[in-house]
User: Fold this.
Amino acid sequence: MNFDAITITDIARELHLSISTVSKALRDSYEISETTKKRVLEYAQEHNYRPNPMAQSLKKGHSKSIGIVVSNIDNQFFSQVINGMESEAYSQGYNVIITQSHESYDLEVQNVNHLTHRAIDGLLISLSTETNSVEHLKKLQKQGLPIVFFDRVSSEIETHKVIVDNFKGAYQATMHLINCGYRHIAHITSSAITSVTSERLSGYKQALNDGGIKINEQYIKYCPHGGMDLNEIEQAVDELLALKTKPDAILTAWDRITTSTLALLHKRKVQIPQDIALLGFTNTLLADVLNPSLSAVQQPAFEIGRKATEMLLSIINSKRPVTEFETVVLPTELFIRSSTDKTYKPDQ
Amino acid sequence: MNFDAITITDIARELHLSISTVSKALRDSYEISETTKKRVLEYAQEHNYRPNPMAQSLKKGHSKSIGIVVSNIDNQFFSQVINGMESEAYSQGYNVIITQSHESYDLEVQNVNHLTHRAIDGLLISLSTETNSVEHLKKLQKQGLPIVFFDRVSSEIETHKVIVDNFKGAYQATMHLINCGYRHIAHITSSAITSVTSERLSGYKQALNDGGIKINEQYIKYCPHGGMDLNEIEQAVDELLALKTKPDAILTAWDRITTSTLALLHKRKVQIPQDIALLGFTNTLLADVLNPSLSAVQQPAFEIGRKATEMLLSIINSKRPVTEFETVVLPTELFIRSSTDKTYKPDQ
DNA sequence: GTGAAAGCGCTAACAA
DNA sequence: TTGTTAGCGCTTTCAC
Assistant:
């Protein structure tokens, strides 16, 4: 079955005009008489003519759309980021194409391949947890594809980046736990190779140091698949619960790890925060209505997306090659709720 | 700034070959000698040649990608649907392009415009709550664009559709509430013009009838923006709470309405289920860890997406125009948790 | 005011 | 085995 839409050629033939006349009439060129314009426009309208964007892009050399690669769209953090991207892109006349890597390196490469090479004018990407080589992106950048990283960035590629202050976010969160009196604070995080992981880990460790608490490596658990694999998290939680000195608090570093850990603690009848307090990085809108309401480090997701897009479009629209790059660091916000604070009362 | 990637013409020039020889060598044609193939391939590799998909699509008349329009990707129902779509599409060598209508008719039209006319080979769409005219889709279909509806469908367009048994889902849910002893059952639903709304409303009413309970129109609240506008839901909830005979149970018909209602009841210090029981259509993975754990009507989202894509690809790949269309109806599943059942204990 | 023609990058029928 | 050529749908320069 074929898509037999009407083309500019069809209109020209039917109206006994040349192709170029039709093209100009359609774009309301001053060269064309009103009468002709009217005829063309009416015919086009009637037959529901729509320009073929592929042909237009091929001709013009740009597609007015930008590609997005995130790990999972059902992660509220990413969907909020995407909303920010859409907002900025639309306001500048661009469309966005969203793809998911599902934390898989292979899928990431496949998506990038699909998106690239003039099918998009630029790329916004947060690396998958599996990704430790960015050769596929380096090549593209060398070819002139504007790329902006957000969230999970690579230090191997020089370009604009938008991240949050992960160190400080984790530091503040850990400090809060210490201030609440917790002394055995575990940390469940993602793949060790991801930028975000190491920054948050450093913040966690620094806070422990500053709080005079010795770092216990048994309390630090990695989930290489960033929470996509529930077994990983389950194993991490169970190992923590099996320790002879069980942790009295857990700081989870990733959205999905946070909610999964909550569910797993539930299943194991662990009282939160009485037995173990829980504090996690997450942007879920449901933090208030979870059981218990969840203390969370939240990221300015919409602004991350908006800013990253603004920077990408500035590269795309730049007359000359851009060589000076900037890394924007936005602050996180700590919300205290009952999963860490026994005295917390909702509804101020 | 421009994307100056290497083209087949560049390779031909450098290697003193014709364009077509290069093209054939690249596609490993039997016509080309191994030596030439090797030279071309090596040069291409070295200079990181990548075919321009726009040119390919323009030439071949298809893009091997399908467009998706949903209201919001951060709705777990839709993200699960999309996962099903990706799964089926990838397995057949297609890519997907995801867009959000944010429940806005205008955005829906804009997205469809962006996607259509050979930029995609087919369209998978769930209508926005605002949409009550489908002329934009009718036109496209007339031009030969294969379209498959899922979730929120239009009766005005004949094509394949994938939905769930909304009537039965709502009927069973309402019956469950009746069986639990609730007699004043309210229903907060979405826009009255959406297919899903009326089907679920009918199921609700039928169950009340069968349960010998008189239908009270004051107990039925519409949120035309499908939960995108929190004020709508807030007003609905407050109106219900202000009634002289307050409802003792609420059936919410949409994902976001369900979670928002839960949050609003929290804020108003309403005890669930003691004061008011809550049961909602939702696919959130967090139902178990909400406070209280949430009774829910869940949809087979992944399968909806998979099936819809399978049907779309069958139209796309059909040799002759397809005129016989099918509507697939999948079952919903009712999960009982503590928001309706006072005796519910997690962890079987 | 209108049209002819070149070309964006690629494929494929046909020629050599 | 390789090359020539036409053409996908559109824009744009240059003639007429």
Observations:
- The CA atoms of residues 15 and 40 of chain A lie 8 Å apart.
- Chain A touches chain B through 73 residues (CB under 8 Å).
- Residues 17-21, 24, 31-33, 36, 55, 57-61, 118 of chain A lie near DNA strand C (CB under 10 Å from a C1').
